From TrEMBL:
Catalysed transformations (reactions): N-terminal L-seryl-[histone H4] + acetyl-CoA = N-terminal N(alpha)-acetyl-L-seryl-[histone H4] + CoA + H(+); N-terminal L-seryl-[histone H2A] + acetyl-CoA = N-terminal N(alpha)-acetyl-L-seryl-[histone H2A] + CoA + H(+)
Residue span, N-acetyltransferase domain: 73-217
Record-given protein name: N-alpha-acetyltransferase 40
Location relative to the cell: Cytoplasm; Nucleus
Molecular function GO terms recorded: histone H2A acetyltransferase activity; histone H4 acetyltransferase activity; protein N-terminal-serine acetyltransferase activity
The organism's place on the tree of life at top rank: Eukaryota
EC number: 2.3.1.257
Record-linked InterPro entries: Acyl_CoA_acyltransferase, GNAT_dom, NAA40
GO CC field: cytoplasm; nucleus
Length: 250
């Protein structure tokens, strides 16, 4: 073999360095995900958003790991998902498989936001996870489901605000989610909340029955979050229907 020129030596050095940097980036990202999953009290990181009030609605939200959820609440979430989604799943290649959905919803890594009225009526929930996705730390929103009676009152949007705040303070790069292409109301909802087609979504030519939507999270804002007043409006949404309430006073 001939002697390597100084140009090719430099090139391999650069490649090695780039590989090392990439390995470090992935290791850092994984440690961010691990740290987020270890947080004992996620609610404490976004408590100013967990009370949602309009003139005819008083909602409180709690955030729990799946294994901390009350059995009845988990069963309600599974039932609501079936009521909202079964037909939509049945009309695409996924089909509805309740066992598989329950398995997904009860996975150890599942976190839940549960929204209920002051009188205890359960109104909405989100199943989410902190995870690595295509080499990046993301908050993946598996479900956002609102009872028919609770819709178009800003609750879904508030739930997304909570997810975005959690993503920001735990330094996740995106809130990402999978949406069915034949669910136009969900698409309108996510679009209104600032979500757009993610680069990991299947190419349009594939005409897949789902797409990946996301919102990039500016993690530099997390410091600002610590400093903002507890009575600030949800910072990510235009036209919110209610203001946040200072939960420290209640
Ligand atoms: C999609 C869903 C989560 C929206 O929740 P929601 O609490 O009703 O939404 P919000 O009131 O916060 O809506 C915020 C904005 O999104 C848009 N939007 C919400 N629902 C919409 C609909 N059905 N059609 C068109 N736009 C809609 C509107 O711009 C709305 O603002 P506006 O009411 O001031 O016009 C709820 O309809 C739902 O649970 N649907 C069934 C389950 C589902 O499809 N989940 C999503 C896939 S996992």
């Amino acid at each position: 073999m001939g002697k390597k020129s100084s140009i090719s030596i430099n090139k391999s050095k650069e490649k090695r360095q780039a590989r090392k940097l990439e390995q470090r980036r992935i290791a850092d990202a994984m440690s961010q995900v691990t740290s987020a999953n270890k947080i004992e009290d996620l609610a404490a990181l976004c408590k100013e958003l967990l009370v949602y009030q309009t003139k005819d609605l008083q909602v409180e939200m709690l955030i729990q790991r799946v294994n901390q959820l009350d059995k009845n609440v988990l069963n309600w979430a599974i039932d609501l998902t079936e009521r909202n989604m079964k037909k939509l799943y049945e009309t695409c290649a996924w089909g509805w498989n309740k066992e598989r959905k329950v398995e997904e919803m009860t996975d150890d890594s599942a976190w839940y936001i549960i929204a209920k009225e002051k009188n205890g009526t359960l109104l909405a929930f989100s199943h989410f996870r902190f995870d690595m996705d295509y080499g990046e730390p993301v908050l993946y929103c598996y479900e956002v489901q609102v009872e028919a009676a609770g819709r178009r009152r800003g609750l879904g949007q508030r739930v997304l605000c909570v997810l975005e705040k959690l993503a920001r303070v735990t330094r996740m790069r995106f809130v990402r989610l999978t949406a069915l292409t034949h669910n136009p109301s969900a698409y309108a909802f996510f679009k209104a909340c600032g979500y757009s087609l993610d680069e990991t979504s299947p190419p349009i030519e594939e005409a897949a029955h789902y797409e990946i939507l996301s919102k990039a999270i500016d993690t530099n804002d997390s410091q600002k979050d610590e400093e903002t007043s507890q009575t600030e409006k949800c910072p990510l949404s235009d036209g919110m229907k209610a203001v946040s309430v200072n939960t420290q006073q209640s």
